Amino acid sequence: MTEPDRRAQRAAKRRLRKRHAAERRFRAYGAIAVTTGILALVLLLGSTVATAIPGFTHHVVELPFHFDEMRIDPSGNRDPGEIGRADYARVVKEALRSVFPDVRGRRDQRALRSLVSSGAAFDLRDRVLADPSLLGTTTVLAVPLADDADLMLKGAIDRTVPESDRRVSDQQIAWIDRWVAEGRIDRVFWTRFFTSGDSREPELAGIRGALVGTFWTLLVTLALSFPAGVAAAVYLEEFAPRGRFTSFVEVNINNLAAVPSIVFGLLGLAVFLGFFGMPRSSPLVGGLVLALMTLPTVIIASRSAIRAVPPSIREAAMGIGSSPLQVVMHHVLPLAMPGILTGTIIGMARALGETAPLLLIGMVAFIVDVPGGPTDAATALPVQIFLWADSPERAWVYKTSAAILVLLVFLVAMNLTAVLLRNRFERRW
Predict the structure, then answer these.
(1) What was the pLDDT predicted at 356?
(2) Cα 189 to Cα 43: distance, rounded to the nearest angstrom
(3) Among 55, 365, 397, 346, which Cα is nearest to 213's?
(4) Predicted confidence (pLDDT) per residue in 163-200, tens digit
(5) Alpha helices (H) along 155-207
(6) What is the pTM of this model?
(7) Residue 78: how many CA atoms within 13 Å on its side-chain side?
């Protein structure tokens, strides 16, 4: 081998080593990027779950309540209206007085009552209405603690700091410790979080109203965006003549898919509320706005699914005498439906997490009642999270994280459904 050949061989080996080193660096960079993403996701989900778990539980205290029949049902007719109008706050006061008979001063009595939730009276009323046999008896029942007492028991309030720097006084801590020593306090799974509407008191607030409002909003969104999006995709892909107008429509559909969601909120505010005068804060308007936002995604996904159907399917159907409409309805759409459903579910998942367009159409209002239909005033789960996150009290932090976790569960479930549908029904040609 001549010297020039050896030099060329050495140069080739150097180049090969450089390429292999570059490939190893590229793989290392990719592994670092993936690991960083996974760690960030674990950190985010871990912190959210850790903060959300206390939001699903609450402390209750067992007290002996005396339901004086002469005060609650003086007529003795067991009339629900009369029983419901009784002063159950007084029943709570008397129960606390029976447990702490030595508390005399008005200020101390007020501090003692503040340990029990203001919703305790309503809980007692509901229990008496459900079971009138409680009248005339003294029964030990569990009622929720106020949010400050609950936070102290969860460790969110440090009892070692000076009394002036915390919301629970030393005397209140002593009362709570006495209840704990007597076995009166228990930590329970807080079903009220899922069965109640919004409230000014953290221990009474729930997401039921937001869940129902989200259901109606997404139902309107699906009812409008799915048929319109599939019909538009079928027309553009199968029947529309190729020309400038069709190209103009396709370009604008792609542009609409990238428009910020708040622009659709402004459109809904100006058109649906300002021009048509539709009911403000209603799921109907929210669904219309989200349908406009979701429509481009549905059209694009549906067109891709329809385009993936092989031309041989169409040619075979035409060969046996099928009309163009029959080809689409009987052959193309059934084969493209898995991809269409996948794109639709992903678009609905995006709509589920939207907040900005709903804020502009008034769904940010404080709504206590659970909506009974798409025209009733309502809020949505992302907006409820936004409202709670803006509240200054520490108890709302747990409520907000718990609601975020519920929203994430729905989003993961919808995306998982899309993946399962695709893997189960998708055909590869």
Answers:
(1) 86
(2) 25
(3) 365
(4) 888 888 999 999 999 999 999 999 999 999 999 988 88
(5) 170-182, 192-195
(6) 0.86
(7) 9
The length of the chain in residues reads 429
Q: Give the pair of three-digit tokens for residue 411.
A: 């989003």
List the domain boundaries for the chain.
3-53, 56-190, 208-425
Q: Give SS3 for 373.
A: coil
Tokens of 32: 């670092």
Measured from the Cβ of residue 349, the count of other Cβ atoms closer than 10 Å reads 19
Taking Cα atoms as reference points, which of 262, 213, 219 lies closest to residue 381? 213
Locate all alpha helices (DSSP H) within 53-79, ordered by sequence. Answer: 69-72
HSE, side-chain direction, 13 A CA sphere, residue 193: 23
CA-angle at 391, arms to 385 and 396, nearest 5°: 65
DSSP state of 144: E
Phi, psi of 193 (to 5 degrees): -60, -30
Tokens 């009276």 — which residue?
A: 121
Task: Name the residue type at position 260.
Answer: P
Whether the CB-CB separation of 339 and 297 falls below 8 Å is answered with no
DSSP letter, residue 157:
S
**CA-CA distance, 390 to 400, in Å (whole number)?**
10
Apex CA 54: angle with CA 359 and CA 111, to 5°? 95
CA distance 374 to 287: 9
pLDDT of residue 338: 86
Helices assigned H by DSSP within 365-394: 381-389
Q: Which two tokens stand for residue 327?
A: 């080809």
The domain 208-425: what is its CATH number?
1.10.3720.10
